[in-house]
Structure to design on (471 residues):
């Protein structure tokens, strides 16, 4: 699609009705710093313009401006895309920044919350707590926006117990590619509703979510097990024991855990949604590899979220940096065998990392996530048990050695799990080619997603390099 930047800016100014701080273009002073705000500094992007609408009507007006002037559109909620896809992923898109759409209300009869799509997860937790001590499943980074999170999956510690964040979405208000504002749920615009829950960025701009909620857990038991070993090779049996634990099909769904390899050793984090007595009764503690330093705390719900956010900040938080990341989703049959585990950790031992800031993270999934039928939403990973992610942060520009290190880690895991060929859309990877990206993120859901795309966005108004294509 072509574009006319000057005409687009004039059109957006009309949508803003002269309101200051509403829209900007590359000629605006400090455009990148104060308007674009890229998350991954290793992926430079210059949008044609950025608009910060106050309501769905202004979102619709912005979409109409983009269509009129031949510009692609992407919404930005929290802006945490690993490849800056919320900024279009490449130069020349219109960014609809939803920062002002942060309304909230709670229906005290149904306990359904209505939430603006620009709401950050940390603020959502505070609002849900204040509206009757309610909660939903979501990830651990408080700065992530629900607009993106609840349209790709939304995985977090409570997902094994409650499902993904998108499994809590019962209705949305969405702006379509024609600039129309519609409602979508299981009964109305059901095909669009299906696609939005898993591949939302390719189908519209959600301005409002209606979410089912849960009562907050009364107590949350959290542990951190730290292993400081002389070499990564010594971590292999610890990882193998942890993997055997999370592979148990009868593992208590109130339990969440991750295994993190880092320069100083390994960390196992565990979260149990229940009392200390209930935790002890599960017997899980006896199955966690021992020998490390242990930190233990019993929290309430909000304090547990703060604890999880603190753990996340150790790896990749809200601060823009140049970084590289790889990821893969593993079903039970894809779990690494002993030889593959040993090979992986041998590689980590010997490889040149090119940075002191690198992490390889394994997150347990399954449980309630897997209960939802595959056909119910566009989210494709209902059979997955484990997600692996690797990150490396550059101290300045990323070194070639750093990228090569993560590619090597990825190759080791692929070799040990040859049946694993997909990844979570929340861990977007610009290294995946455009022809392969759809299949990597949405697996067998792609044919139906393309049908819905042809119906609702045949001209490809909503676009990023890894999105659903018009075919």
């Amino acid at each position: 699609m072509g574009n006319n930047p000057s005409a687009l800016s004039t059109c957006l100014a009309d949508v803003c009705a002269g309101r200051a701080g509403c829209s900007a273009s590359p000629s605006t002073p400090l455009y990148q710093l104060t308007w674009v705000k890229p998350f991954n500094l290793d992926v430079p992007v210059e949008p044609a313009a950025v608009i910060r609408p106050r309501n769905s009507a202004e979102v619709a007006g912005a979409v109409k401006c983009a269509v009129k002037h031949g510009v692609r559109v992407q919404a930005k909620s929290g802006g945490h895309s690993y490849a800056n896809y919320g900024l279009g992923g490449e130069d020349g898109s219109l960014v609809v920044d939803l920062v002002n759409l942060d309304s909230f209300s709670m229906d005290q009869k149904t306990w359904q919350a209505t939430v603006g799509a620009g709401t950050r997860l940390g603020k959502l937790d505070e609002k849900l707590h204040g509206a009757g001590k309610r909660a939903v499943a979501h990830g651990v980074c408080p700065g992530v926006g629900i607009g993106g999170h609840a349209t790709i999956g939304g995985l977090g510690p409570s997902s094994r117990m409650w499902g993904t964040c998108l499994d809590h979405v019962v209705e949305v208000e969405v702006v379509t590619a024609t600039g129309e504002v519609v409602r979508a749920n299981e009964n109305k615009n059901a095909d669009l509703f299906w696609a939005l829950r898993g591949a939302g960025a390719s189908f519209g701009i959600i301005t409002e979510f209606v979410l089912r909620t849960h009562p907050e857990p009364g107590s949350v038991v959290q542990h951190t097990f730290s292993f400081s070993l002389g070499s990564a090779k010594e971590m292999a049996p610890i990882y193998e024991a942890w993997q055997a634990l999370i592979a148990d099909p009868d593992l208590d769904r109130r339990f969440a855990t991750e295994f993190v390899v880092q320069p100083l050793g390994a960390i196992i984090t565990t979260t149990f949604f229940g009392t200390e007595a209930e935790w002890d009764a599960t017997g899980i503690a006896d199955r966690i590899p021992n020998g490390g330093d242990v930190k233990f705390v019993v929290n309430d719900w909000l304090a547990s979220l703060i604890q999880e956010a603190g753990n996340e900040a150790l790896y990749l938080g809200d601060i823009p940096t140049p970084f590289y990341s790889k990821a893969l989703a593993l079903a039970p049959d894809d779990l690494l065998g002993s030889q593959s585990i040993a090979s992986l950790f041998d590689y980590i031992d010997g490889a040149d990392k090119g940075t002191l800031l690198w992490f390889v993270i394994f997150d347990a999934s399954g449980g309630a996530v897997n209960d939802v039928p595959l056909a119910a939403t566009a989210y494709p990973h209902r059979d997955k048990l484990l997600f692996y992610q690797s990150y490396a942060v550059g101290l300045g520009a990323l070194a070639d050695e750093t990228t090569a290190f993560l590619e090597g880690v990825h190759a080791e895991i692929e070799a040990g799990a040859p049946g694993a060929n997909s990844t979570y859309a929340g861990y977007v990877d610009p290294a995946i080619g455009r022809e392969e990206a759809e299949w990597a993120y949405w697996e067998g859901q792609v044919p139906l997603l393309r049908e819905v795309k042809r119906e609702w966005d045949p001209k490809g108004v909503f676009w990023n390099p890894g999105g659903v294509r018009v075919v």
In short: The mean pLDDT is 94. The chain has three domains: 5-97, 104-216+442-456, 220-437. The first strand starts at residue 23 and ends at 24.
